[in-house]
Amino acid sequence: PQGSEKAKTFVHAFLKRSMPQMKDEAIQDMLTRKAVILEHYPKKKTKQKRRKTKGFTAKQRRELRLFEIEPEQQRYAIFLPLHELWKQYIRDLCHGLKPDAQPHMIQGKLLKADLHGAIVTVTKSKCPSYVGITGIILQEFKHVFKIITKEDKLKVVPKLNNVFSLELDGFISYIYGSKFLLRASERSAKKFKLKGTIDL
């Protein structure tokens, strides 16, 4: 067909112009024996650097008072519903605190659980003034618990050198604060040794 002849002529002329150093015989040999691949160099895509969202610094958080509880909100009765939610959360986590449940399994789950809303009591302490403090945990930091007592007083209790107990459905768990110096978000990946230590 006439169209194919035009195509051959165009390709031959194109190759002759593109590769002037090649002879006609070599071009003809390339057309009859080999496929002609026209090289294509795609533009390299420049990777856009992801901008990390910068959060507030510790100083900015203090200035904005993000984690401070207003005095009018420091009432025990306000946080009782939070405690009820926490109890349901622990029951679901432990598949119900049944009498035949293995204590070390429950203990292991409690150590990794979120304690916001739990009622805890300081049972032992190197500082006698902390012993007997009971209340709902409102905030947990790496080194301290913030606890609201029944007297509507917000207590900041250090974890170090204190032993805490929490009770739920007859099951009592003891937490050695000295072995608990972690943020709440870090405890889920932490492996705890369930054996308590004699010293604080």
From TrEMBL:
Q: Its GO biological process terms?
A: rRNA processing; tRNA 5'-leader removal
> What cellular component terms from Gene Ontology apply here?
nucleolus; ribonuclease MRP complex; ribonuclease P complex
Give GO MF terms, alphabetically.
ribonuclease P RNA binding
Q: Which Gene3D superfamilies match?
A: Ribonuclease P/MRP, subunit p29
Q: Which Pfam families match?
A: RNase_P-MRP_p29
Q: Is Phosphoprotein one of the keywords UniProt gives this record?
A: yes
State the UniProt keywords alphabetically. Answer: Nucleus, Phosphoprotein, tRNA processing
Q: Which InterPro entries match?
A: RNase_P/MRP_Rpp29-subunit (IPR016848), RNase_P/MRP_Rpp29_sf (IPR036980), Rof/RNase_P-like (IPR023534), Rpp29/RNP1 (IPR002730)
Where, subcellularly, is it found?
A: Nucleus, Nucleolus
Family the UniProt entry places it in = Belongs to the eukaryotic/archaeal RNase P protein component 1 family.
What quaternary arrangement does the UniProt entry report?
A: Component of nuclear RNase P and RNase MRP ribonucleoproteins. RNase P consists of a catalytic RNA moiety and 10 different protein chains; POP1, POP4, POP5, POP7, RPP14, RPP21, RPP25, RPP30, RPP38 and RPP40. Within the RNase P complex, POP1, POP7 and RPP25 form the 'finger' subcomplex, POP5, RPP14, RPP40 and homodimeric RPP30 form the 'palm' subcomplex, and RPP21, POP4 and RPP38 form the 'wrist' subcomplex. All subunits of the RNase P complex interact with the catalytic RNA. Several subunits of RNase P are also part of the RNase MRP complex.
Functional note = Component of ribonuclease P, a ribonucleoprotein complex that generates mature tRNA molecules by cleaving their 5'-ends.
State the PANTHER family in the record. RIBONUCLEASE P PROTEIN SUBUNIT P29 (PTHR13348:SF0), RIBONUCLEASE P SUBUNIT P29 (PTHR13348)
The protein here is known as Ribonuclease P protein subunit p29
